[in-house]
Amino acid sequence: MPSEIFQLFFDTIPDFCAILDETGKVVHANFQGIGRNLAEPALQTVPFCQTFCSGTACPGQDCLFQEVLLHHRAAIREIAHPLFGHLELQAFPLTKNNSMPVRVALRVRDLTAVKQAEQRLQKLAHHDTLTGLPNRALLMDRLEQAISKARRFKRGLAILFLDLDRFKKINDSLGHEVGDMILCQVAQRLQGVLRETDTVSRLSGDEFVIICEELKKFDDAGHLAEKLLAIFRDPFQAIGHTMHLSSSIGVAQSFIGGEDGNELLRQADIAMYEAKRRGGNQFQIYCRSMKHQVDQAFFLEELLRRGLDRNEFFLEFQPQIDLRTQRLIGLESLVRWGESTTCVPPGMFIQRAEESGLIVPLGEWILKEACEQGVRWHQQGGPNLQIAVNISARQFAQADFADRVIHILQSSGLDPINLELEITESAIMENVDRAIATMHRLKQLGIQFALDDFGIGYSSLKYLRNLPLSKLKIDRSFVRELPFNTGDVKLVTSILALAGSFGLKTVAEGIETEKQLSFLTRLKCQIGQGYLFSRPVSPAAIPGLLQKFAGAA
Ligand code: C2E
Ligand code: CA
Ligand code: CA
After folding, report:
1. Can the peptide bond before residue 82 be classed as cis, meaning omega within 30 degrees of 0?
2. Are 320 and 329 in contact (CB under 8 A)?
3. How confident is the model at residue 470 (pLDDT cuts 50, 70, 90)?
4. 166 and 194 belong to one structural domain
5. What is the pLDDT of residues 399-452, one digit of tens each?
6. Is residue 381 one of the residues assigned to a domain?
7. Which is nearest to 547 in space by CA: 326, 318, 334?
8. Number of compact structural domains in the chain
9. pLDDT tens digits, residue range 140-164?
């Protein structure tokens, strides 16, 4: 019989501890831990550890008690008990003089809370806290499993990379709270259309990745992508805001399981990028040529970035001639990249600069350079010429565009009435109200606006009236076949009439022949620009051209 002091000590152990005799019956216990919940009959069970092992292994070979008795060594088990939760059972032989154990000590630790915490941590480590979807770590894990399964069972597998279109705008304008709510709704809708065997995870921000196992036919992934696009048909709602969203989806498929998870994910990402490039709200299935295009695009972007750092850009200017007086009245600045002999035409890099956002610093440099050049000519005694600068859509869309222009005018010292900004219809249509506000603000300072490439865009009369424009530039593709192409003749004639009725001047681009010139002059087109007068030239050549086009005698 243990002494009282021993009992006191025994009771301080927070786990349930018991001493069993050779039959497994409890001869002593502390009733701590889960022992507090044990009723007397349980203690009578022989062998007692059956109470925890649910009797499945007791008294079989795997029985903890038997193992200690037979092998004279400590044994340990972890079990998930239906009533007591997650338990760790430890049993030790209590031997006397190294002879047969006469007693077995049993210690039962309640690991339920520990396990729960562990599971919570696991979930945290593998799930996105906002949407509760698997995160990147778990996605990659499932992806590797899916690939090896697909390989083993010779099945197809697809990955869909979904990115919301223009989500950043929502986040920036309506706040993160709204953005987060939208992301949760997207997660719910995605789960709603997927099968249980599919995995949907949130990679980061507004990027979701879906693993679709058990792909049977080549079109299966395309059908799924269509279903995913369709979840955006109904508007989303958050804190009083209702908004329409769309997404771009890239699909990568594996039919032989040759690729690893990272490679598949990269392919899906590239295809998603292609879907975005084509305007979004669609899916694209990865193919090899896409990778080549993307590689080239990234290479070009890298070169552009470096070119900006190293001042590899310069400007040429092309004269604009008053067709009535034959005087040079304006110059359009055109950007060039590289050595003048081996220079890259803007058609090859402006679009990429737009897509990557590099057009913003580049465009800023162009505007500054053009304004400074205008001031230099004037200081050299030249007349006050109108300097026309092309502004890209992305540059025009900057919230502080007007401020930037004003700042450049001030720092360069160019008189605002000598600056003309050429913008395209699509740049205006992106946000008509803001465009009108920006233009009015700059117009008040004396800055002029020309609508570039007119005829190839919307050519919408409705908004033309509300815009503070001074000129329309007829795209050179309509001038090229004048006066022979009757369609172009009709179009140019009506553009000229339209411009006249709105009080706008017209500039015909790309005049290369005398025939084009006389046709346009006859129709009272006011201004001409093209190789017939001059190609774009370096600033040093402008004084000579000013003499050449000093006006009809
Ligand atoms: P754009 O604004 O329509 O510029 C006129 C283009 O027509 C220029 O090509 C010019 O060299 C060319 N051109 C002028 N006269 C003739 C002609 O008689 N025949 C022919 N065949 N072509 C003629 P460029 O310099 O290659 O520029 C192409 C486009 O690149 C421009 O079209 C404009 O959209 C863009 N771009 C050029 N410079 C800039 C710039 O500084 N900023 C921005 N954002 N875009 C620019
Ligand atoms: Ca232009
Ligand atoms: Ca043009």
Report:
1. no
2. yes
3. very high
4. yes
5. 999 999 999 999 999 999 999 999 998 888 878 888 999 999 999 999 999 999
6. yes
7. 326
8. 3
9. 989 999 988 888 888 888 999 999 9
Ligand 1 atom index nearest CA of 475: 3
Surrounding ion ligand 2 within 5 Å at CB are 390, 422, 452
CATH number at residue 439: 3.20.20.450
Residue 452 Cα to ligand 2 middle (Å) = 6
Rg (CA), the chain: 39
pTM of the model: 0.61
Helix (H, G, I), strand (E, B) or coil at 203: strand
Nearest CA to ligand 1 atom 5: 509
Residues with CB under 6 A from ligand 1: 318, 333-335, 345-347, 350, 363, 366, 390, 392, 452-453, 476, 509-512, 529-531, 536
CA distances from 129 to 176, 203, 254 (A): 15, 12, 30
Calpha distance 16→105 (Å, rounded): 11
Q: Does residue 220 form part of some domain?
A: yes
Give the ligand 1 atom nearest the CA of 345.
26
- CA of residue 424 to ligand 2 center, whole Å: 8
| Local confidence band at 458 (pLDDT 50, 70, 90 cut-offs) | low
Residues 393 and 447 in one domain: yes
Co-location of 423 and 518 in the same domain: yes
Q: Say whether 495 sits in a helix, a strand or coil.
A: helix
Question: What would the DSSP string read from start to end of 77-134?
Answer: EEEEETTTEEEEEEEEEE-STTSS--EEEEEEEE-HHHHHHHHHHHHHHHB-TTT--B
Ligand 3 midpoint to CA 513 (Å): 18
Q: Show the domain range for 97.
A: 4-115
If asked whether residues 222 and 354 sit together in one domain, one would say no
Calculate what percentage of the chain has a pLDDT beyond 90: 46
